[in-house]
Structure formats: structure tokens, C-alpha cells
Amino acid sequence: MISLPDLSQRLAALGANEAHRDRVLRHWVQALPLDQGRRKLEHFLPQALRQALPALMDELAGLARLLQRHPGEDGSARLLVGLGDGMTVESVLLPRDGLCVSSQVGCAVGCAFCMTGRDGLIRQLSSAEIVAQVALARRERAVKKVVFMGMGEPSHNLDAVIEAITLLGTAGNIGHKNLVLSTVGDPRVFERLTGAGAGPVRPALALSLHTTKAELRARLLPRAPRLSPREIVEAGERYARDTGYPIQYQWTLMEGVNDGEDELDGIVALLKGRYGVLNMIPYNSVPELPFRR
After folding, report:
1. Does 37 have pLDDT greater than 70?
2. What is the pLDDT of residues 139-155, one digit of tens each?
3. Angle formed by the axes of helices 261-271 and 229-243, nearest 10°
4. SS3 for 173?
5. Using an 8 Å Cβ cutoff, are 133 and 101 in contact?
6. Global pTM?
7. Residues 6+ away with beta carbon under 8 Å from 131
8. If 0-12 CB within 10 Å is exposed, 13-18 middle and 19+ buried, where does residue 140 land?
9. Out of 10, 104, 195, 225, which residue is the most buried by the measure of CB atoms under 10 Å away?
10. What is the rounded distance in angstroms from the CA atom of residue 143 to the CA atom of residue 134?
11. SS3 sequence, 47-98?
12. Are strands 121-124 and 104-106 parallel, antiparallel or unpaired?
């Protein structure tokens, strides 16, 4: 599995300086033709890099291959993506030029209502495999927003996710507030994105809330960090005020589980005055699980 630092080292070994590297990465992640640009590659790139470039671009394209496309009625489309080792993940083209990407094959959190985590974590995606999903989608249509809400818990693959976010927010030409990292509320995310640990690109955050009740949340998200809904919201509020990006609180609605009047009262008590938005998400029922839309 090639990572973005690996890729940078390979480009440097071919004689690329920082400007050369950025040009190659920009063409890849933006799905641009190699001959596009004011300066032709033969007038700009070192000879060794020019000669290696076609094979390198083929290798990068092979990191994420489109196996199946399942359109939705709202303009979205689920993409089954094949990785280089034969594993598969899912990306989703969203309305209004958005894309949802995966960061892991499988997931270790094991949310009770989610099929992805039933088999646990199979493997991490490299930062290049994450970015390759964006490059693949951009061959289908424009992508102006990327959300890390696909397969996996991004906080469990944080180095690779941050590497991908940094490239997408620079060579990828995506606005920083349009890069949205979703997490169940892992403290490592807040630690990494604030203070001295913050990198050049600070994404927006989406926090999986799903209930205002700590006991119910522990049952629904059995291997999430043991933070109460209030602690999660307070951490999110600090990040929102620091960055100027509202937090996106995620709430998957399940019949008879978290859709009662008591939860409405809890939402008012928990989120009143907070700098955020609450996304109510219809549940996709599956026969193997007892939850219903």
C-alpha cells in the first residue's frame, strides 16, 4: 500500500523538487490531463520523471478502480471501489458535488445499527488509497466537498486521514471547511486538530451523536470512547468556535429507539445556543438487523 509520503519520496528520487511534485499531485488528485497547464510537462519536469510518469499515473489509477455504480433517486450514486489487493470499499457521490469516502476496510467501533462493523476492522486504507477515491470520483463528475463518513472510523486511521485531508486542501483544491471529518467522538481527533498539533488544513467536524442519553449511546456505539453526549458536544463546541466552522451533529433516526419526545427535549437542552447543525438521517433498514426507519 503506497502512502502519500511514499509517493513524495518516489517523486524526489526521480528528480522532482517541490514544484514538480505539486504539479504531479495536482494532475492526479484533480483528474487533469497530463498535457493541461500553461507550461508543458516536457518544459517543466525532469527527464527521469517525465519518462516514469505514464507508468506512475497508471499505478495511481489502480489504487481505486470502479467496480459497480448504483445510482440513487436524489442524484447520489454508491460506488463500489476495488483496491489494489482485491479488497473493496464504498464511496458515495452526493448531491451538490459532494463525495463520501472510506478510510478503512471494515470498522472496529461496531455500532449496533451499522453493517460495516459486523466483521470488525479488516485493514486500514493508506492515505493514497483515500485520495484515490477522490481522483476516481472526479473522473465521473466534479467534486467540491469530501466527507470522511464512509466505511471505517477516521480517528482509528488518523495519520492517513490527516495526510489525505492536507493534500485535498492544497493540491486537491478543496476548501478547508468542505473537508469534513466524521468521528464517534474520539478525543484524539480534538487533540490532533487543535493547538500545536494542528496542520495547515483544518477540516470541519461531524460528530456521531444519535442520542442525548449516555446509557443508550453506549449500547448503540459499544466500542466508542466513553464520552457522554454532553462531553462530546462541549468538545465540538470548542472546536467550532476555534475554527469558525459549525459542527455537524449526526443523528440516525431509528423507530422506537431515538425518535421520541424525550429525545426532542434532550436535543433542546444539549444543543441550544451551540454553533452547529443537527442532521437527521433516515435509517436504511436491512433484514439482518432489528432497527427500522
Report:
1. no
2. 999 999 999 999 999 99
3. 40
4. coil
5. yes
6. 0.94
7. 4, 28, 29, 164, 167, 168, 172
8. middle
9. 104
10. 8
11. HHHHHHHHHHHHHHHCCCEEEEEEECCCCCEEEEEECCCCCEEEEEEECCCE
12. antiparallel
Write the single-letter amino acid at 133: Q
Torsion of CA 221, 259, 102, 175, to 10 degrees: -120
∠282-234-179 over CA atoms, to 5°?
55
- pLDDT, tens digit (0-9, with 9 covering 90-100), for 230-240: 999 999 999 99
- pLDDT value, residue 206: 97
State the alpha helices, DSSP H only, in 194-260: 214-220, 229-243
For residues 182 and 227, the answer to whether their CB atoms sit within 8 Å is: no
Q: What is the pLDDT of residues 52-64, one digit of tens each?
A: 999 999 999 999 9
Mention every residue, 6+ apart, whose C-beta is less than 8 A from residue 17.
none
pLDDT band at 73 (very low <50, low <70, confident <90, very high): confident
Is 43's pLDDT higher than 90? no
